[in-house]
Amino acid sequence: MDLTRKQLREMQTLLEELKVSLSDLLAKTEVGSQPVKLKDNAGRLSRMDEMHNQSILIANRTVIKNRLIQVGLAQQRIEDGSYGYCTRCDEPIAMLRLQASPEAPRCIQCQSLTEVDA
Ligand SMILES: [Zn+2]
Asked: Which residues of 92-108 are buried (b: 16+ CB within 10 A; e: fewer)?
């Protein structure tokens, strides 16, 4: 099934919105990812907590950055007309999947196959 012009426009809008909100999220978490500052009165445990929270934040930022890259690639695929087809098996990606994650480069079957080394 080919995507209709209307569906493509819908995906373009979704991708653009996703790009804006992901960039926004990155900007908002910028300050939090600075190196941990030692507080005079901070005990050993709370410092560990802080470092732990920070490592989660950095991991999330990595996820967000990777997603932004995927969004950009999806926008390129819209440009060159290959959008909506799995980059691995060339089968159409289910519309429901695209609506849930418009940047998805692979169909659900291929995604589950490649999840381990993604
Ligand atoms: Zn596939």
From this structure: ebeeeebeebbbbbbbe
Give the span between the Cα atoms of 39 and 17, in whole angstroms: 39
Residue with tokens 């060339």: 90
Q: Which residues contact residue 26 at a Cβ distance below 8 angstroms, ignoring those fewer than 6 apart?
A: 61, 64, 65, 68
Within 13 Å of residue 19, how many CA atoms lie on the same side as its CB? 14
Q: Name the band, by pLDDT with cuts 50, 70 and 90, for residue 100.
A: very high
State the pTM of this model.
0.77
Longest dimension (CA), the chain: 63
**Measured in angstroms, how far is the CA atom of residue 9 from the centroid of ligand 1?**
23
For ligand 1, a single-atom ion, the residues with CB < 5 A are 86, 88-89, 107, 110
The whole-angstrom separation of Cα 21 and Cα 36 is: 26
Task: From residue 65, give the alpha-carbon distance in Å to each of 51, 90, 108.
Answer: 21, 26, 22
